[in-house]
# Entry
Amino acid sequence: MKILKNISKIIFPNFKCLNCGKESFDTFCPACKRLLPINNKIKIKNNNLIFSPFFYDGIIKKLILDFKYNNKKYLFSPLAKIMADYFKLQKIDINFITFIPMHDKKLKQRGYNQAEILASEIGLNLNIPVLDCLKKDIPTPSQTELSYLERRENIKNSILPKSVNIQNSNILLIDDVYTTGATTEEASKVLYKMGASKVVVLTLACTKSDEALN
Ligand SMILES: [Zn+2]
# Structure
């Protein structure tokens, strides 16, 4: 009986739902899957395409906060796989993947840059090289509660290029959440200055409306 149980475990490994922890053959169990805040739209801003499989809400918001602030790094792999699977469907040619940088001071506090972790894992899933292209030179205060224009001013010139060659390349820029777009816009601007031909943005989630853009 025990042997049979062990064999069945090999054939049907014990996956757990990322949200509720119940046994599940998929990242989310059927009940939690129904609650996912799916986003069916692609944002276009300043000629930039922004892809996000989810809205920043409910289960996904909780997981992102756990991933970012509660040191639950094990969440990055399944979340990155969802992002990679979703991006594959868009059929866009990408040469390199890069990520929103984090200032050294913040990196020391948190211990990891969640955007970098997601990017590395997405790179493995899509079989596309990940390049460390950008650095955050000026630590910007927390962006929450700020309007788009305040954020834009805050982030201006705080992202600098690293000496890597991305001339004539299509770049996929990764971040965890897209809110006003101030950060990804600034990073895209730098990537274009470095010679990129196209920059598209992929985040796990985005805010529901563009209200914050005003
Ligand atoms: Zn569940």
User: Anything to note?
Assistant: Strands lie at 43-45, 48-51, 54-55, 96-99, 134-136, 159-161, 170-178, 198-206. The CA atoms of residues 84 and 206 lie 16 Å apart. Helices lie at 2-11, 30-34, 58-69, 76-88, 104-110, 114-126, 148-155, 182-193. The chain is about 35% helix and 15% strand.
